[in-house]
Each structure stands twice: as structure tokens, then as C-alpha cells.
């Protein structure tokens, strides 16, 4: 999906909410209704996860791809590997919020960890990101200086020009 379609859909959804609210503050229910914006947040977290690795200890003997790991083995999963694995995500290096129309396969998307160790603030963080996008969308016109900038992937994905953006107030 071209970037302009992503921007258009995100913008249309947020402008519709602003018009509905007529200057009132948005609520958590309003943020939940921003379906496409929330998919943009999920895709952003998948592509540029803030936590590169997690630390685990094997609770039992495990065999994986021909290697045997004994109980007590210290495991350091690299989250970016699963988040950009083509076995789990089609065209994984392409920013595509529409992929979140279907939930990710369990265990493949762990931007905030998983299971009993999931970050207790994960929903709050996602809501704040969606609110930020909402206000940025309805209050400013913004353009990437170089929308075709190459992406550097290590240690974390980032545009080679560091995403230079021009803003002007609407």
C-alpha cells in the first residue's frame, strides 16, 4: 500500500472524530474507535520495537532445530527476528497497517512481551501513541522531506535521513 493511502485513511478517520467531538476532549472510547490509527500504532511497534530482546530461562529441556538446550539455559530471544519473519508476516519489511485486520499468530508479535510477563502499561502506551497521532493529524500538516529514504535496520529500524519532517499548523 503506498504511503499516501496510509496517510489519507489515517487522516480521514481522525478528522471525522474531530468533527464528531466539536472541540470536546477525546475519550478512551473515542481512541478505541480509531481502528485504522490503532493499526498504524501496532504496525509501528512491530517494525520498530523499543525492546530488542527479552531474557528467559528454560524451565525444561528443549530441542530446537537439532540443538538441545537443558533446563536452566538462558535464552535471549531477539524480538525483531519474529516481528520481521516472513513465516509470520507477509512482506515483513513493508509498513502495512492493514495486516492488523487479522490478529498476529500467538507468540509472533511481542512488542510488550507476552504471557505473565507482558508489560502492564502496554494498553496505556498504545492509547497515548494513538492520541499523539490524532492530535498530530488534526492539528498539523506534515510531510516527510524524503519519503523514499532508505531504511537502516540495525540496531533498530530507522530512516537513513532520521525521518526529517516539515510541520505547519492547520
TrEMBL record:
<dbReference type="GO" id="GO:0016705">
    <property type="term" value="F:oxidoreductase activity, acting on paired donors, with incorporation or reduction of molecular oxygen"/>
</dbReference>
<keyword id="KW-0349">Heme</keyword>
<protein>
    <recommendedName>
        <fullName>Cytochrome P450</fullName>
    </recommendedName>
</protein>
<dbReference type="GO" id="GO:0016020">
    <property type="term" value="C:membrane"/>
</dbReference>
<keyword id="KW-1133">Transmembrane helix</keyword>
<keyword id="KW-0479">Metal-binding</keyword>
<dbReference type="InterPro" id="IPR036396">
    <property type="entry name" value="Cyt_P450_sf"/>
</dbReference>
<keyword id="KW-0503">Monooxygenase</keyword>
<comment type="similarity">
    <text>Belongs to the cytochrome P450 family.</text>
</comment>
<keyword id="KW-0812">Transmembrane</keyword>
<dbReference type="GO" id="GO:0016125">
    <property type="term" value="P:sterol metabolic process"/>
</dbReference>
<dbReference type="InterPro" id="IPR017972">
    <property type="entry name" value="Cyt_P450_CS"/>
</dbReference>
<dbReference type="InterPro" id="IPR001128">
    <property type="entry name" value="Cyt_P450"/>
</dbReference>
<dbReference type="GO" id="GO:0005506">
    <property type="term" value="F:iron ion binding"/>
</dbReference>
<dbReference type="GO" id="GO:0004497">
    <property type="term" value="F:monooxygenase activity"/>
</dbReference>
<keyword id="KW-0560">Oxidoreductase</keyword>
<keyword id="KW-0472">Membrane</keyword>
<dbReference type="GO" id="GO:0016132">
    <property type="term" value="P:brassinosteroid biosynthetic process"/>
</dbReference>
<keyword id="KW-0408">Iron</keyword>
<dbReference type="Pfam" id="PF00067">
    <property type="entry name" value="p450"/>
</dbReference>
<dbReference type="GO" id="GO:0010268">
    <property type="term" value="P:brassinosteroid homeostasis"/>
</dbReference>
<dbReference type="InterPro" id="IPR002397">
    <property type="entry name" value="Cyt_P450_B"/>
</dbReference>
<dbReference type="GO" id="GO:0020037">
    <property type="term" value="F:heme binding"/>
</dbReference>
Amino acid at each position: 500500500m503506498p504511503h499516501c493511502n496510509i496517510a489519507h485513511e489515517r487522516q480521514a478517520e481522525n478528522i471525522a472524530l474531530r468533527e464528531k467531538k466539536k472541540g470536546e476532549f477525546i475519550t478512551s472510547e473515542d481512541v478505541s474507535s480509531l481502528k485504522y490509527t490503532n493499526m498504524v500504532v501496532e504496525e509501528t511497534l512491530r517494525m520498530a520495537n523499543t525492546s530488542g530482546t527479552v531474557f528467559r530461562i528454560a524451565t525444561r529441556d528443549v530441542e530446537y532445530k537439532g540443538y538441545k538446550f537443558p533446563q536452566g539455559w538462558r535464552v535471549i530471544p531477539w524480538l525483531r527476528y519474529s516481528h520481521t519473519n516472513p513465516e509470520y508476516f507477509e512482506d515483513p519489511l513493508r509498513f502495512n497497517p492493514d495486516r492488523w485486520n487479522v490478529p498476529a499468530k500467538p507468540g509472533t508479535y511481542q512488542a510488550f512481551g507476552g504471557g505473565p510477563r507482558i508489560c502492564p502499561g502496554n494498553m496505556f502506551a498504545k492509547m497515548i501513541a494513538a492520541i499523539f497521532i490524532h492530535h498530530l493529524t488534526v492539528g498539523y500538516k506534515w510531510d516527510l522531506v524524503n519519503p523514499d529514504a532508505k531504511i537502516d535496520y540495525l540496531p533498530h529500524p530507522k530512516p537513513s535521513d532520521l525521518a526529517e519532517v516539515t510541520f505547519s499548523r492547520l
